[in-house]
Write a structure and sequence with these properties.
7-stranded mixed β-sheet, 9 helices, alpha/beta
């Protein structure tokens, strides 16, 4: 790992600032963890996580990092957001963290078993990040990227929510869930075998306050003008209050994961 010491990595501070740093508290409070079946699928397709050296790139506040660690992985959280990583460290003081850019990983070549990008692969330059992933993985190591999305299409509240979001947020499209990431970057390097795609359906039980915290943490909402953002969040709150008067929500989700093995 960095400097050859997984437990004491050097910190590399990149130029720029994470768009999530201003909303790190809401991100930490509102973003959901991932279903156990996802990690079982990773182990089935890649290798057992226990003892594996795993990079969680774009780790944010360490949601996936902690879940990987709970399965015995030797995890390192990598993110260029200082405040986001601060939340990760606060929850897990002994967690190795690197403030660095996933397009230029400060990691020794061929030293990693698995690189994970939980809700983050789309933030990186696909060509540069793919080359970096190939460099740090040993032959036979794996890249995995996944995204969780609410999948409540057809439910009145969710269809209305999608309409409200598209009207208010220039950066939001309901079909953002659709890209096939197995053909982006990783496949084009020629350094990986055929990709494996896994879809894990699950159910999220969440209260409306937590849902709203997640909304505040989304980059395309956080970057709106304050008055527009406040009006949108108020509208979402009213929508949830109408359809979930008891504040408890049960929402179908899907986590879609792509995995490829380094040749």
């Amino acid at each position: 790992m960095a400097d050859g010491h997984p437990g004491r990595p050097r910190v590399v501070t990149p130029v720029g600032r994470s768009p999530f740093d201003p909303v790190a508290a809401d991100y930490d409070a509102g973003r959901p963890s991932y279903p156990d079946a996802l990690f079982a699928a990773i182990e089935e397709a890649a290798r057992p996580l226990r003892g594996a050296v795993v990079l969680d790139v774009g780790a944010g506040t360490g949601i996936a990092t902690r879940q990987l660690g709970a399965r015995g992985a030797r995890t390192v959280a990598i993110d260029f957001g200082e405040l986001m990583l601060g939340r990760a460290r606060a929850r897990s003081p002994s967690l190795p963290c690197l403030q660095a850019d996933g397009n230029a990983l400060p990691i020794r070549s061929g030293s990693v078993d698995l690189t994970c990008f939980a809700q983050s692969w789309h933030w990186f330059d696909q060509h540069e990040a793919s080359q970096e992933v190939a460099r740090v993985l040993h032959p036979g190591g794996c890249w995995a990227a996944w995204w969780s999305h609410a999948w409540a299409d057809g439910q009145v509240w969710f269809d209305t929510y999608q309409e409200v979001m598209e009207a208010a947020c220039p950066g939001y499209r309901r079909h953002h869930r659709d890209p096939d990431w197995s053909e982006e970057g990783i496949a084009s390097t020629g350094l990986f075998g055929p990709g494996v795609r896994t879809v894990v359906p699950w159910t999220r039980r969440v209260d409306t306050a937590t849902w709203l915290a997640e909304e505040r943490s989304k980059s395309y909402i956080a970057q709106l003008a304050p008055l527009v953002r406040d009006r949108l969040l108020r509208r979402i709150g009213e929508l949830l209050g109408t359809h979930f008067p008891g504040t408890s929500m049960v929402v179908p989700y899907r986590t879609r994961m792509w995995l490829a093995r380094r040749r």
